[in-house]
Design goal:
373 residues; 9-stranded mixed β-sheet; 17 strands; 22% strand; globular; iron
Length: 373
């Protein structure tokens, strides 16, 4: 099997955000160098070579020092020939001119900035390490070194956030003439500071109606910009859609390297161990650093095909579905399709099934219809 994509996880952060449930650790006193050496070994053992997309995320890859970042970039350069999209996640305050120049010199052609909001008070609430001014400086640095594609992450439905505040943040993001925007509502995840505060009654979120208003505003505002919507939470200029994320949404294979990373190879979904020290120990013992490996049943694969594919504006292609599973989409989900079409949540054409604007607002409800209980 030809695997076209890979994800590399850097689980270190300068500051731990209040909402984040990713596998991450405060970088101080962590065995970062030992981790990077083990990451190099895991990547080597995979025998992966030519890739169409590579995404380095976290945590925060830019939390690494220049020397550590150079070591990581050399590891990637030695192992992979990257034909297309090469993305690094970054925090605005860490994206110095020196680091941008370094990333550019090793072929990085896309930066994904964790902006979240342009409101300094809300940034403090989120536990972010940057301020609004850092966002402008980071984008300026990326433009100066001619990074071809710049993406921003922007959150809404935040504690204490008004519709006006979100509108202002979105307008400021678009004013930077960015190439790509990911914008998503806050979800309270267990084992986060926000979740614990919420359970104790110390955190109040805007009601669901305001969250829906924010999403509606987002979709309508994007229609008046140079970006177009291509997925529930993602918007891009022409030729700047995230090729790497499309691998996930199309249910295709990819490598996952690093502590807590997940991959999908030869029909097996796997997840690596989370704790950094456990990861280091396994790799040093010459073992694959796996926490779990599962082989989805055909029914599970079909369900994944539906709820991942429907995230994209292009929807689920009926011919592709039949080619993969030797069954017609309408035969598998005839009742569900009819019901959702009557509710105005999906469009059912001869070639594909896709969400309507109304369906995107309640996307999770639509996805659940395609999952067997």
């Amino acid at each position: 099997m030809i695997v076209k994509s890979a994800y590399i996880h850097i689980p270190f952060c300068v500051k731990i955000c209040t909402y984040c449930d990713f596998n991450k650790y405060f970088i101080q006193n962590q065995p970062v160098d030992a981790y990077l050496q083990c990451l190099r070994e895991e990547i080597k053992q995979s025998n992966a070579s030519t890739l169409e997309t590579l995404f380095v995320g976290g945590g925060t890859p830019t939390a690494l020092s220049v020397e550590q970042l150079t070591y990581l970039l050399e590891t990637i350069q030695q192992q992979f020939k990257i034909l297309g999209e090469y993305t690094f996640e970054a925090n605005p305050d860490e994206l110095t001119a020196e680091k941008v120049a370094l990333l550019k010199s090793y072929g990085v052609n896309r930066l994904s900035l964790g902006v979240q909001t342009f409101d300094d008070d809300l940034l403090k609430t989120l536990g972010r390490s940057h301020q609004k001014s850092d966002i402008y400086q980071a984008v300026e640095n990326a433009r100066y070194y001619d990074i071809p594609s710049i993406s921003l992450d922007l959150m809404y439905h935040l504690p204490g956030q008004t519709l006006k505040q979100f509108q202002t943040s979105l307008d400021e993001a678009l004013s930077l003439n960015i190439d790509h925007l990911s914008s998503y509502g806050l979800i309270l995840e267990p084992q986060t500071q926000f979740y614990n505060q919420y359970r104790k009654g110390k955190l109040k979120l805007p009601n669901e109606d305001i969250g829906a208003e924010m999403y509606n505003f987002l979709m309508n505002r994007i229609k008046k910009s140079e970006l177009h919507q291509y997925e529930i939470s993602n918007f891009a200029k022409d030729n700047h859609e995230s090729a790497h994320n499309k691998v996930y949404w199309k249910n295709e294979s990819y490598y996952g390297f690093g502590a807590g990373a997940s991959g999908y190879i030869d029909g097996i979904r796997y997840t690596n161990v989370n704790p950094v020290n456990h990861y280091i120990k396994k790799v040093n013992q010459g073992l694959k650093p796996r926490l779990s490996e599962t082989e989805p049943t055909e029914q599970e694969q079909i369900e994944e095909e539906m709820f991942l594919g429907l995230r994209m504006n292009q929807g689920v292609n009926k011919d592709t579905f039949q080619m993969k599973y030797q069954r017609r989409l309408e035969d598998v989900y005839s009742k569900e399709i009819l019901k959702l079409e009557k509710q105005g949540l999906i469009e059912n054409s001869p070639t594909e099934i896709k969400l309507t604007d109304k369906g995107r607002i309640v996307g999770n409800e639509v996805f659940e219809a395609f999952i067997q209980v």
